[in-house]
Structures
1.
Amino acid sequence: MSATKKSRNDEKLKPVRPSGKTDDTIFDLIYAIARQIPRGRVTSYGAIAKAIGSGKSARIVGWAMSNAGRVKPKIPAHRVVNSMGLLSGKHAFKTITYMQELLEREGVKVKNDKVMDFKTKFWNPLEELF
């Protein structure tokens, strides 16, 4: 078949995303999971990446979180930390301490930019959502 000629199947197939729509982006999938992180809990970039079926894409989750301030409805990006509980995304917030302030308002203790008691505060989307 030539490059200009399409098969009948090529014209009919459209990928269906978890929402049932055909226009979800990877950021949409990331945000859908992030919106479900409960108050007072945190998850990691890698945990979200695994939940969307792309376990090696933690960096993409980080990019999504750094853009989350522009998204409506709001994304609780302050609840997403690195795999050791560090507030590695704090630079994306309006002040360098705002991520910590938001977490502490929800009862999450932070010391030296690290979530205290990370293991008990950790929310695993693979266990909670699937």
Note: The domain at 20-118 is CATH 1.10.10.10 (Arc Repressor Mutant, subunit A).
2.
Amino acid sequence: MGAPTTPGLGVVETVVLDVPDVAAAGTFWLPLLGARVVQESDDDGQFLVLGTREGWLVGLQHAPDLVPARWPGQEHPQQLHLDLRVPDLAAATASAVALGATLLRENATWNTLADPAGHPFDLCASDEVDRTTVWGVTVDVPDAAAAARFWAGVLGEEIAYEGEGMAMLDGPRTVMFQQVEGYTPPAWPDPARPQQLHLDLDIGERDPDATEAAALALGATRLPGGGRTFRVFADPAGHPFCLCWG
């Protein structure tokens, strides 16, 4: 539908959830996704990365003072959420609830639940899968079209769909944008308005300084924090993301 504005600065490597208890979150998400542990931190369980069979990485990051989302309102918004495809919606919902999820809303073809940390996620009925799979990540934004243009430039992907307050990027990792009335952005690192989830992007062999300059030119904002192998930014809607290398 639309060409990216740049060759792309990186690829989606990990969808990271802030959680108050990494071990408890792993106990929930591992069986829900049918995933395996691919990385554990060496600092007392502060970080855990799960790998799904379809190639997604889901990170669980320790945030002891996390203010949980209260979906569907914008006082404590979800910000981002995972969309999972399932072959049997009723059975998948029952299994998720048995693992500790809370059912928030039922629909004909998808249900919205929250994990034990309060993060909403959707189970979407699909006849294209025979097990639970990650379909993509959806980002709440004030302007879906503008968000899609920014992220198309960052990821070097085409805009596959745009309309009715929604937009979606093409590519190996589905990223969608939904327009939210009364949108409230995160203000990381302010603990009163924390991030709930964020994306880690792998920039590969690109020069970090040049990649940062390109991200800023597209409309990103540099945020405090970062380290030897990553830098922290916010997209134009205020969502933090990291550019990572090494």
Note: The chain has four helices and 16 strands.
3.
Amino acid sequence: MLNIVLFEPEIPPNTGNIIRLCANTGFNLHLIEPLGFPWDDKRLRRAGLDYHEFTRVSRHADYAAFLAAENPQRLFALTTKGTPAHSAVSYQTGDYLLFGPETRGLPADILDALPAQQKIRIPMQAQSRSMNLSNAVSVVVYEAWRQLDYAGALIKA
């Protein structure tokens, strides 16, 4: 399956919602610290309901530790500075989808290290700055899963 990577997430309900999303799709979740909240935050638990036990969550001390532990072969960063749309990518099992923190996005050094075709964006209206993190993750996850014919789903398309 695919991997969702949250770089220094700040808002517990967003992360909780993404935990629940991963439980429902079979995607793995990677959290790159520092987190903007304690891991036992009640808002994180409330948003994720009882889905925490059904999600593979890996925590990494920093971005370098994530790269060393996972050695991602295909990593796509979601950014408003990206050119290809998220739907223009041909996703493959094992891909990593990297999302930045809610208030600032991914740092320039991470984006600069990736080729242009791996910096992707979700289309939106010109006057919009960005989407809510858990909504953005959902949009991309379901497009990737659709391309993989909803692998592992109870009902396929």
Note: Residues 3-147 form a domain with the Alpha/beta knot fold (CATH 3.40.1280.10).
4.
Amino acid sequence: MKGSPVKQILLITALFSLFTSVAWSGSYNYISAEDLSQRLSSHQETLLVDIQVQDEFSEHHIAGALATYAYPVKSDADRQKLSAAITEAKQSSAPVVIVCPRGGGGAKRTYDYLLKEGISTERLLILKDGQQGWPYADLLAQK
């Protein structure tokens, strides 16, 4: 390898950082709104774990969703709000779809926590784009 030792060290450091960040970045399973709407319309068993805050959940949520009000799932108190969802998931073999406001960080933290609590990664799914990206008004709970 030609070049100054400083450049070589910088290159090695950059490559190491790249590989470790890829290795440590979690891999998550996602489901599209279209695929979830088909599951729900065909009455396939699905556990919807909605982590929206109470005001957002009250305004709009998918019919049949389990309200947890756990968002943003950053504290022990937030994670404690998921206990009913964990209990229900352990009593079922159905896929667990996490519904978050936008399908981002809160959903990933919920996924990681449910995984830690013994729910298999094969069953865990995050609704892509979350509740905000849900286009199927006919599948929303009626107010």
Note: Strands lie at 30-31, 47-50, 66-67, 96-99, 124-127.
